[in-house]
Amino acid sequence: MPHDAESSSAPRSRRWLPYALLTIAAGFAASGVAIPALTSRIDASIARAARYEITFNVIQGKVNVAAFDAAAERYRSEPNAASRQALTIAYAVFKGWAADLKRGELGAYVRSDASYAADVNAIERAVDDLAPLVESAEQADAVRKIEAIVNAVHQPLAGVASQVLAHSVAQSSADMSELRQQQFDEFLLTSGLLVSAFGLIAFLWRQNQVVERLHRRQIAAANQFEFLASHDPLTCMPNRSAFSQALANAFARRDATGDEVALLTLDLDNFKTINDVLGHAAGDQLLISVADRLRRVAAMQTAVTAARLGGDEFSILVEGEGAERRATQIAQDTLRALQTPHQLGLLSISTNASVGLAIAPRHGAAASDIVRGSDIALNRAKSSGRGALNVFDNALDHEAWGWRALESDLAEAIECNEFEPFYQPQIDFATGTIVAVEALIRWRRDGALVPPIQFIKLAEETGLIVSIDRMMLGMVCRDALRMPESIKVAVNLSAAHFLCDDIVASVARPLAESGLAPDRLELEITESMLLTNETRTHDVLGRLRGLGASIALDDFGTGYSSLAYLRRFSFDKLKIDKAFIDDVDTHSQSFEILRAITALGRTMDMTIIAEGVERMEQARLAQLAGCRLGQGYYFARPMPIRDLLALLRRDAQRTPLAQSA
Fold first, then answer.
1. N- or C-end of the chain: fewer Cβ atoms within 10 A?
2. 407 with 382: CB under 8 angstroms?
3. Strand partners for 355
């Protein structure tokens, strides 16, 4: 994802950030030092360049001498006041130039080289010698002497000029080289500054890009966080929190307009089975498919909000005029939409839903009233056969209160030990004798027995069934000690109890406390328990069998029957469900199925028992099909321990029970 790429690039940029800033800062610092140094070098070069002016002055001396010589020649040929004045001026100029040889920059330059001394002294003597001759130029031989002295000055002057010129050429070459070096240094400095500037600009641009990406990520993360706070991450539907807010807003609007508000609560039927059999990934795909269909149905109406509250529970809120009618239509459309198979990869899964409906103000004036009402209606829809819509009414409310009261009584019954086992015999078809009994839970409430159908489901839903299971194990192990040692006792383990981490310890404890031989205890599990976690199930069954107890597969053929389960888990006993026994004496196909199941069980060394035997012909056919044991009202109804002990005593003294029944 782009998010990951940006998150990985950000740490890299943070790693080289200090080095980049340090490099740029070093570049500017070096420039700050180099600029004054370069300026100083340029000033020195300019100072040296001034020597070219000194050279010009030395050469200018030759011009001055030549001008003085010319003035003397003119005066000699045309002695008059003008030529006399020109001679005097030419001398003054020559004398001034000669004086510069010992002062100022020119003097310093001349004194810097000892080779100039003889020539300079000769020039100075000539200047001194010319002074009286110029004053007395009108005298005879004065001009000739002047010309002679001037001719003598040409040689030292030429020497000085040539030396200065040669030195100037050499110095000029050196200065040009240094200037070129300075130009190169200036180029490097300028380039360095430009590179640093461009580097800084690039760095700032890069950082700006990173900051912009981080900013976009923060905005996206904030939006994502806000979305996740109000939406289910799997289906992208509004979640419970958002739906609660939408419900509160709907009731606020209802207070102002008086319109109806309808609430649909929906649960998928048998979703847990799909999750267990096909896995959670398939379950998630199914939820996504269901959510898409709910959205499409909801989009067909106005003022409708659909949400996933959690698990396989969804809600649809309908507001405005005709809310009840529109909600009913939405529920019907939803049920039809869900009946179309869902394509989950290569699998095509059909599902259905149970729906509860409550309407305000008819079923309550507050949001909590219709939430409770829709939940109660949903529970009635689920218990009435599923796949249907149920509308809340007062009778359901009374029933719900009854369930709550029953739950409270059930918890109290556990505390007060109001449960007791009833025992139903299991008969050996070959001998007609009792070889085992199955312990069945009974609740004696206020002296009367409460039918298991009235409380078992509630106990399972509330988790109280685990405490009842453990209580039963203790009572059955103690009762078994009062029975003949040849009698085995079978106890049903609930799915919730089987999934407990201490399941093995909860079986071992009553065995140890009662002293019952473990091989007399038989634990019955249903096929649905095998689907939760195959590895764990195999481990738990192995450890239970390691205690010495035997394992029976109860209600075989009604759940998720699989030959692989029979082979993989190696049961000791296979209990064929009553559904296969009910019509075995009226439908030949049922008999053939029964015979195939018993043949399979015998092949795997399992004892086969037929449950729900109520007629003699059923018992005969079950035995003929290959069942070894039978259990049902034809032999005996479930009975308390006192009656069972009496029956066992009679059974030991007479002919087989089945023949005398």
1. N
2. no
3. 266, 389
Candidate from 222-231, 402-411, 510-519, 599-608 with smallest mean pLDDT: 402-411
pLDDT tens-place string over residues 393-452: 766 555 555 566 677 888 888 888 899 999 999 999 999 999 999 999 999 888 888 888
Do 369 and 456 lie in a common domain? no
- Tally of structural domains, the chain: 3
Residue 597: CATH number of its domain: 3.20.20.450
With beta carbons less than 8 A apart as the criterion, state whether 416 and 467 touch. no
Using only C-alpha atoms, the chain has a radius of gyration, in whole angstroms, of 59
* DSSP secondary structure of 201-243: HHHHHHHHHHHHHHHHHHHHHHHHHHHHHHB-TTT-SB-HHHH
The SS3 of residue 79 is coil
> Quick one: which of 539, 504, 492 has its CA closest to 638?
492
Same domain, 361 and 427: no
| Chosen domain end from 183, 207, 231 | 207
Q: Which helix (H) or strand (E) holds 506?
A: helix 503-514
* DSSP-derived secondary structure letter, 508: H
Instruction: List, for residues 639-661, the tens digit of each pLDDT value.
Output: 999 999 999 998 887 655 544 44
| Three-class secondary structure of residue 441 per DSSP | strand
Q: Domain containing 354: what range?
A: 240-392
**Alpha-helix runs per DSSP H in 101-141:** 104-111, 117-135
* Bridge partner list, 552: 524, 573
Cα of 410 vs its chain's centroid, Å: 44
The sign one gets for the Cα dihedral 193, 194, 197, 198 is negative
Q: What is the DSSP-derived secondary structure letter of residue 493? A: P
Query: E strands within 500-579?
Result: 521-526, 550-556, 573-576
Contact (CB, 8 A) for 279 and 532: no
Q: How far apart are the C-alpha atoms of 615 and 598, rounded to whole Å? A: 19
- Residue 652 tokens read as 């030991």
pLDDT of residue 11: 52
For residues 492 and 372, membership in a common domain is answered with no
Residue 520 · residue 480 · CB < 8 Å? yes
Query: Is the CA virtual torsion 15, 21, 23, 26 positive or negative?
Result: negative
Percent of the chain with pLDDT over 70: 84
Q: What's the N-to-C CA distance of the chain in angstroms?
A: 76
**Pair (248, 378) in one structural domain:** yes
DSSP-assigned beta bridge partners for residue 316: 264, 306
The order of strands in the sheet holding 353-360 is 304-310, 313-319, 261-268, 353-360, 389-391
What pLDDT does 42 receive? Answer: 65
